[in-house]
Protein 1
Amino acid sequence: MALHVELVAVEREVWSGEATMVSARTTEGEIGILPGHTPLLGQLAEGYEVRISQEGGHDIAVTVSGGFLSVTDEGVTILAESASLPGEADSA
């Protein structure tokens, strides 16, 4: 079973796809989201990475600046003020 993940910054869609787990730091602390997670809405902490784990052990680390994380039955949506993938210039 996989999670559908959409990571969107103000200026662009950063990443979209299937994942086995999503980890992020919210203003309430670190959170790990697996398939079947209870729906929630959290405010992202400034300047931390969102880690998206995929099948086969491939992880994507995206540095985000502010925003929100939403978990629903359909998947995980991350709305960031700005975000950058490894190797990209800082989008902030």
Note: The chain has a mean pLDDT of 92.
Protein 2
Amino acid sequence: MDNGASSYRRFLEGDKNGLSEIVRMYADGLILYINSFVHDVHTAEDLTEDVFAKLIAKKPAYSGRSSFKTWLYTIARNIALDHVKHKKLKNESSIDDMYDIADKTDIEKRYIKSEDMALLYRLIEKLAPDYRLVLLMVYIEGFDNNEASRLMNKSKRQTENLLYRAKQALKKEYEKEGISYEEL
């Protein structure tokens, strides 16, 4: 599987179904990924639309040096970080922030189907931001350590250490819930 590269290539050649396939494959994951930066599901949904709008309007070149998924998530990260930077400059706050918890539950129901995965996701949300991000990318989204390193702007060694510490922190969260999880 090429993770969307052939769909993007078809889209660039004029096949609108190519973009539809990319949206179908990546929209939910991108919302969760972007939400880890902006902490607002509505904003994450809007920024996910911005990612796809950028593909439509600017048609950036995909070089193939990384997987298509890594390339797409890099675009998403840049858009999310730009948003965070501009939000800090404006120092804006929204009443929508009050509804953040309910919206996360909606995303969980749609994206994470089993009860075990829902529990895992709730426990991951309790972790430090870098821990959440590395666990989300590696175990939920399926990025390998090299891709996660690139997306987090860290060395592979830093990412591996971060992943180890994140798993230890997650194990402690499981224990707080009264669940012994030997495989972590």
Note: The two ends are 28 Å apart (CA to CA).
